[in-house]
Design brief:
CATH topology: Rossmann fold
CATH class: Alpha Beta
Structural class: alpha/beta
Largest sheet: 8 strands, mixed
Strand content: 15-25%
Number of strands: 8
CATH architecture: 3-Layer(aba) Sandwich
Shape: globular
Number of helices: 11
Helix content: 40-55%
Length: 304
């Protein structure tokens, strides 16, 4: 065999080996894509940061529209918590395992607002969220219209906010979930020093008054909303809490369950072992994502 022929034979062998590796190599994993931006706000008077998590086929199919899940963070965190603490990985893994469908997740920065309009009138976060943030997101991303394609969830302070929004604006949200929601039926009637009162007010950013205005706090409570408003029709509800929650929120969660049961409002509720921390949340966040995904899938099936 000539040297030229031998060279061609080697080249052919290399090409065949490359084809074999390409044929049996694992396909590249379709990725959830995150982007963090800000939305202008006339109501708050400053831009508000947010992170959005776009499903794998969002970029591949430019005409497709998706359901949306709004995620509200806890006190002391911000819009990047799902990025920094592994929430995005949980979302990616569930999609890879085909345990959930594809939908958009949006996490705004809520500061220390508890997602309400503050007692002192300085921070109208609830107005911003409903009147500016939702319209902005749903006009800048390809989101399916209709209430059934819009869900809301959160942890701790964010769980409080999610339950408030879900019940108060049940005509806007088709599903609501919460983990370790910062709710109690009534504030404990205890004596605290002026210094302690100042520390609590500072931690809450004056949201409920300085010192805390008990009447205002009670009026904002998800308990009050459920008691004073008509039963929500067609709202899917899920919440859970850790039995070792150091703030005692498992008591409030149980009371909220009892209230919903008394009003014959269908819902899913669980108490699990665990404290008030990211470890607990990360173990149960998949339940929320699966819960909302099921609601979105039902909505899609109903339109076919």
């Amino acid at each position: 065999m000539s040297r030229e022929a031998a060279g061609k034979l080697r080249a052919l062998a290399v090409a065949l080996i490359a084809l074999l590796f390409a044929a049996f190599a694992p396909a590249a994993r379709a990725q959830v894509r995150a982007e963090c931006r800000s939305v202008p706000s006339k109501i708050l008077g400053h831009p508000v940061k947010y992170c959005v998590f776009l499903p794998p086929s969002y970029d591949a199919n430019a005409s497709a529209k998706f359901p949306v899940l709004y995620y509200l963070h806890g006190l002391g965190n911000n819009e990047q918590i799902l990025l920094r603490a592994g929430g995005m990985n949980i979302l990616q893994d569930l999609i890879d395992q085909k345990k959930i469908g594809e939908f958009i997740v949006v996490a705004p920065d809520g500061g220390r607002s508890f997602y309400i309009n503050s007692k002192d009138g300085k921070v109208h976060y609830e107005d911003f969220f409903m009147r500016e943030f939702l319209p902005y997101i749903e006009s800048h991303y390809r989101i399916r219209p209709a209430r059934a394609n819009r869900g809301i969830t959160g942890m701790s302070m964010g769980g409080y906010g999610a339950l408030r929004f879900g019940f108060k604006y049940s005509n806007e949200f088709g599903s609501v979930s919460a983990h370790s929601p910062a709710i109690v039926d009534k504030l404990p009637d205890i004596e605290i020093s002026d210094e302690q009162s100042e520390r609590v007010a500072a931690e809450l950013g004056g949201t409920f008054g300085d010192p805390i205005d008990r009447g205002f706090w009670q009026r904002q409570s998800p308990f009050t909303i459920v008691k004073s408003m008509p039963r929500p029709e067609g709202l899917a509800i899920y919440f859970d809490c850790g039995t070792d929650d150091e703030f005692g929120f498992y008591k409030g969660a149980q009371q909220f369950h009892d209230l919903l049961a008394a009003r014959k409002i269908p819902h899913e509720f669980h108490l699990y072992p665990g404290g008030h921390d990211w470890d607990y949340f990360s173990r149960h966040f998949p339940a929320s994502l699966t819960f909302h995904s099921h609601v979105f899938e039902q909505a899609a099936a109903a339109t076919k």
